[in-house]
Amino acid sequence: MRRIAMSVATTTLSASLVSCGALNTARSSGDASPTKGDDITVGLLLPEKSNPQYEQFHYPVIKAKVASLTHGQGRVEYANADADAGEQSRQLQQMINAQVDVILLDPVDTHAIASGVRKAKKAGIAVIAYDRLAEGPLDAYITFDNELVGEIQGRSLLEALGDDASISDKIVMMNGSPTDPNAEQFKAGALLALDGEVTIAKSFDTVDWKPQTAEKNMTEAINEIGKNDIKAVYAANDGLAGGVIEALKAAGVTDLPPVTGQDAELSAVRRIVAGEQYMSAYKPYPQEAEHAAEMAVAKAQGKNIRFDALTRDKVDSPTHKGVPAHLVPVVALTKDNIKDTVIRDGMYTPSDICVPQLAADCTAAGLK
Fold it and tell me: Quick check: 167 and 196 in contact, CB under 8 A?
């Protein structure tokens, strides 16, 4: 089994919940009732709305997979905290009060949500951390290998610079939110690739992952370093990449430097086709979401052998060691492999990507 040291984060929930009719409301989350059938309720708490992937892919895929695994009888109660840790705590308490069978939690603040996780555990409700590792007594965790994400981004950036890359090349790092432990892992992975190869001339942590903040910070970096002296930009996700590119364009940069990203947002895929963004770390969200749904249903139904088979990795949080985990692989999405990634996996169709203004670029990329 693989063991990885990791931190924590948070998520959200819906305002109105119905009782799920659990057979044993005092059950232990470690030994869910083996007699529980398909009539289960999965609580899903997601952290924010600035990243469209949460509501466009995560929630719909989880909802559909839960229904499929339970012959249409299982339900998903969903809430999104919109980057408000206090609201997410209230949403989690609502789910506990409604006695859902299991909770998938993507935390806004990994430390602040720990008390809510403890309350769920005391109520006999299993909590599976989703995408970000929360503190507290978790039953499991599913995510991507976050440090590897950053390393892939960093290696891709060096690849874009080519053989002439040197320590004199000035790089700007636009990192994610300081309250998101994943952001620190992305940064650490990127630095593994970049340290000693280029110069990090400016580095920013972007509160709440806001693209507007990234644009403001990039403008500051351009004014300080000089628009013609920035050789590349490490942007931790596609939203930040968009803000970075807007700042570069506003400064009059026509030959854009390589810019990384993450999440394979549709707008980012279009920028990649257009040559404005070099790459995005593609995390196959449908795969992550389907595995999460499988884990949640197995835990709710007491299918421990099935659950154990889905959690063969181990991670450590700041509060608990050896949390059962499932780590989903990632790949670098560039203009060369769009067909073999987001199109093959059904995230987008060529017509989604190839809007009229990208007709020539799509033809050149073999998408039309």
Answer: yes
**What sign for the dihedral angle of Cα 189, 192, 195, 198?**
negative
Amino acid at 182: N
pTM of the model: 0.72
Per-residue pLDDT of the chain (368 residues; tens, 9 = 90+): 333 433 333 333 233 333 333 333 334 444 444 558 999 999 999 999 887 888 888 999 999 999 999 999 999 999 999 999 999 999 999 999 999 999 999 999 999 999 999 999 999 999 999 999 999 999 999 998 889 999 999 999 999 999 888 999 999 999 999 988 889 999 999 999 999 999 999 999 999 899 999 999 999 999 999 999 999 999 999 999 999 999 999 999 999 999 999 999 999 999 999 999 999 999 888 889 999 999 999 999 999 988 999 998 999 999 999 999 999 889 999 999 999 999 998 889 999 999 999 999 999 999 97
What pairs with residue 5 in β-bridges?
Answer: 316
- Cα–Cα dist 329/190, whole Å: 16
CB atoms within 10 A of CB 277: 28
CA distance 68 to 205: 40
Q: How far apart are CA 320 and CA 326, in angstroms?
A: 16
Whole-angstrom distance, CA of residue 58 vs CA of residue 77: 13
Cα(323)–Cα(69) distance, integer angstroms: 25
Cα 264 from chain centre: 11
Report d(CA 306, CA 201) in Å as an integer: 49
Token reading at 88: 């997410």
Say if CB 302 and CB 355 are below 8 A apart: no
Rounded to an integer, what distance in angstroms lies between the CA atom of residue 279 and that of residue 253?
A: 19
C-alpha closest to that of 287 among 103, 57, 126: 57
Q: Among candidates 129, 123, 90, 177, which has minimal Cα distance to 8? A: 129
Residue type, 25: T
Residue 157 · residue 186 · CB < 8 Å: no
